[in-house]
Amino acid sequence: MVLRGFALASEAVLLQALDAITAQAPFRHLVTPGGLRMSVAMTNAGPLGWVSDRRGYRYDPIDPDSGRPWPPMPAVFLQLADAAAAHAGFTGFVPDACLLNRYEAGARLSLHQDRDERDLGQPIVSVSLGIPAVFLFGGLQRADRPQRVPLAHGDVVVWGGPARLRYHGVLPLKPNHHPLLGETRINLTFRRAG
Ligand code: MD6
Ligand code: FE
What we know:
Jelly Rolls; six-stranded antiparallel β-sheet; 30% strand; globular
């Protein structure tokens, strides 16, 4: 379910929280298990963080760059994620992981499934901020032709139930400018990982 503009009301608090997180755990380009540097830069907040390296993908309570826990999940993040999930019919969503993705022009995310979380009955809530992107929403098979969904600043997507394992990705971003976020797009995905 796409909730257009759902995050706009909390935009200022969200951006403040984002600065606090990235001051403690800066965005970095992870390496895939195959050894490729991801074009999207990532960081995390909350008890668990998603990481990728030569050993594989996993959720880890420790930021490998600092050796310290990930920054705490801000209250505004929890409130927004719970409210959005409830709008889509998933009550009592309490995420323990927030993956933050930063895109610049040309960055992309290839088709993937999110399946590293323990309870696939829990939804994922995704918040788009900054310059627009085209989201690819595929099927349950990698070869299924994806729908193209434009996502703009403030849009929130809730995924769950039968859609939880659908393949998805992001097309290479076009150069653009956003008055608050400059030349970047930031996506927050809230998960119940553990
Ligand atoms: C992005 N989002 O929008 C990447 N995954 O930058 C995801 O990969 C994603 O938005 C699972 C559920 C929602 C998402
Ligand atoms: Fe994903």
